[in-house]
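User: Please predict the structure of the protein below. I'd like the answer in structure-token form so I can feed it into my own downstream comparison script.

Assistant: Understood. Taking the following sequence of 498 residues as input:
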Amino acid sequence: MTTLLTQPARNSAPAFSGLRRPVILAAVLAYFVALEQDRIGTYFAADDMMNLATYFRMGPGGALESQFLVWRGFYRPRGAAFYLPLFHWFGLNPAPFQIAILSILALNIFLAFRFALALGSSDLVAGLTALIVAYHPGLTNLHYNVDMIYDVLCFTFFVGGLLLYVSIRRQGRFPRWPEMAAFALLYLCALNSKEMALTMPLVLLAYEVAQTLPSVGAATGSERFPRTRQWLALARRPACLVLLTSALALASLYGKKFGVQPIMDRPAYQPVLSLERYMAFQKASLYDLSGHLARPGWHGVIVFWALVTYLAWRKPRPLLRFTWAYMLLTPLPIAFLTDRTQGCLYIPLVGSAIFASATFLDAARAAADFLSREPLLGRLGRVWILAMLAAGGILFWVNQMRTLKATVVKPAAAVQGTVTASVIGQLRELNPHVRPRSQVVFLNDPFSDWDMTFIGTLWFRDRSVHVYNQRLEHLSPAELARMDHVFDFRSGRLVQLK
């Protein structure tokens, strides 16, 4: 029995793919650089100081250890591998951090392109997918915030792991032990990057079902769907990786609830399992993923998913069925939290982009077939009509993205971290130095949270120095008198009083 699962990926024009694919990628990367390059001048976000100070206090040994103790619940430890080396080399200069995140985003464009091809899409569908992933201002803060590195890294390892798995399965075989180890390492890195990776076991199962469902029944000649024993036989094959990823996901979830830094203890990360919360997420996420083209109400959400489900299941097309499941499954870790849209949708974006690209080209081909039979347009020929329709759709999308950049991304980036940048600049001008094990206090800082404590800790680069925040800790006069160094802000300017 030959199934779609064991067939190699087909390409509509393999003779030209050797040239066409690099050209498509080069064009998408040029588009990416043109729209993203100005993020290099954007300042740190407030959370960057918290993140960086957290990893700095852990130290290199603690940061390395946290990569493997997933059940201990350290706060997104993979971020330490991004923040700490850059801080060591460049200090509190945001430009190198932005350049580094741009490099990872460029890698993710390549991964999205290859992932679409591995799923069996055409070169053009893969190119449109890469175009959508490359710059999507609906995911607004992804395009200026350094603290979105968690989503960016999670995408790299999550999609990279899926690409490895799907590429092996498209060869008609199952992963060998070294490949399973490589996949497990990628998945561990994804889990250590962000909670979005928790859905990997379900995504693997969805892939197997989507690839197998259309073919097993056809092979029997009398059944549209496989019998129970066939399902069990199919389930045994990828079961090792599903069980392994499930164990890692459960260990990670345990750490997030009961670990040393339990993220689920924070109000913003406590899910509310209700239809109202899920529907609110669907409305906001569809608005962002559509590039702000429509803001659906609950009726719109139902119509959207009814249409997407119909398109996915009307014909036995594994590509659409898998990406339909991917779109449903991957947002689950954030679907019952508040305000988790924009850049948090980066991993769901790639599945949505593949589905949208494939259905857009299907619609363009159908329209080209119809128009090619018309007396006036028929002279152009089906190929030219299809090219014009595809180009029109691409130009419309690119123009919408440029508009969103000008009206949404640039204004948000312009006010990003201005107070943080000002305080860091004043520290550079004052250039204070303290002895090891000193006690330092900042009075009347311009922040509303612990930002000044984090910035002070990072500026002195000494884990033995204790930095206090008088606005939040309310030290007594006697405690203030014992401070080795006292800083204050007078008329917005940093001064050293002691």
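That's the full token string. The beta strands are 439-443, 466-469, 485-490, 493-496.
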